């Protein structure tokens, strides 16, 4: 699997998080598909360029001082911290420095949130994204600390302190493959956030549908087995802490699930594979 083939399905989390804020339980997770191809065939898809442009417009309002914060194309009058993610990033710091690979990080919103805490020291933050995010991201937001790339292999080559996987694994055709690649990079910390997980021993492949009044879109979405996902990172990585988004259980045709997060750390003496 090439970096681009993994990246092509990142856009849906933008819709998911916005709809959850605006319509609560309006999302649907339907079916139990045997393959990614079958789930794609049952989906309507989504307009990636339109989503990216909406997000860019919101982020530029923040840059220009017209809004305090933006997430997923929606502006806010207060910073929208993800406190578990911020805690994990602070734990991953090496003294006064931190290197982050943010897979599917859009226009660097998590970097901006981290910097808003006013933490001192050096930061090197690489957002790995699709080309239609990378080009405007580099044009409008890149600086000495924040950069944009469309190759996860290049981003992982320098062995970051932490890899951030926020609301992205469920939209990849082979999420466990990415988990193994991230673990093999030798990163000391791995942060997983907003990922649908169930107590089942198998993964369930659904089609996630967005209410048409928000955006006429549907796309494949995994409900991952919590046990299988954690096992995919391998024996050299241990679970330090787990958390959820606090919104409780969601329903699907097969199983209830929660949007979960994990702070994973490399076990003592374990190196890159």
Task: Explain what the structure shows.
This protein is an alpha/beta fold. The protein has a single domain, classed as Vaccinia Virus protein VP39 (Rossmann fold, 3-Layer(aba) Sandwich). The protein is 33% helix and 27% strand. Helix 4 (48-63) packs parallel to helix 7. The protein is globular.
Short description:
By secondary structure, the chain is α/β, with parallel strands linked by helices. It has helices at 3-7, 12-23, 36-41, 48-63, 83-92, 109-116, 131-140, 152-156, 175-184, 226-232, and strands at residues 28-30, 69-71, 74-76, 97-103, 122-128, 146-149, 162-166, 189-198, 204-209, 218-225, 237-244, 258-266.
SSE order and pairing:
Blueprint lengths: L2 H5 L4 H12 L4 E3 L5 H6 L6 H16 L5 E3 L2 E3 L6 H10 L4 E7 L5 H8 L5 E7 L2 H10 L5 E4 L2 H5 L5 E5 L8 H10 L4 E10 L5 E6 L8 E8 H7 L4 E8 L13 E9 L7
Helix pairs in contact: 4-7
């Amino acid at each position: 699997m090439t970096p681009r083939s993994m990246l092509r399905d990142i856009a849906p989390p933008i819709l998911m998080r916005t709809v959850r804020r605006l319509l609560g339980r309006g999302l649907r997770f339907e079916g139990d598909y045997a393959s990614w191809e079958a789930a794609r065939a049952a989906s309507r898809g989504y307009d990636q360029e339109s989503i990216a442009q909406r997000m860019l417009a919101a982020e530029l309002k923040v840059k220009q001082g017209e809004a305090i914060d933006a997430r997923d194309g929606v502006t806010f009058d207060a910073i929208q911290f993800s406190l578990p993610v911020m805690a994990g990033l602070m734990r991953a710091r090496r003294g006064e420095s931190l290197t982050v690979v943010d897979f599917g990080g859009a226009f660097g919103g998590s970097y901006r949130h981290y910097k808003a805490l006013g933490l001192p020291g050096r930061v090197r933050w690489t957002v790995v994204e699709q080309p239609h995010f990378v080009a405007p991201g580099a044009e409008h937001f890149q600086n000495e600390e924040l950069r944009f790339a469309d190759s996860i292999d290049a981003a992982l080559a320098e062995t970051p302190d932490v890899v951030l996987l926020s609301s992205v694994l469920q939209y990849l055709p082979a999420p466990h493959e990415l988990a193994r690649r991230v673990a093999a990079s030798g990163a000391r910390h791995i942060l997983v956030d907003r990922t649908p997980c169930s107590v089942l021993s198998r993964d369930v492949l659904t089609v996630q549908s967005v209410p048409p009044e928000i955006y006429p879109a549907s796309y494949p979405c995994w409900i991952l087995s919590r046990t299988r996902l954690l096992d995919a990172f391998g024996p050299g990585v241990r679970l330090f802490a787990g958390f959820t988004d606090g919104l409780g259980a969601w329903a699907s045709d097969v199983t209830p699930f929660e949007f979960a997060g994990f702070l994973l750390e490399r076990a003592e003496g374990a190196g890159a594979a």
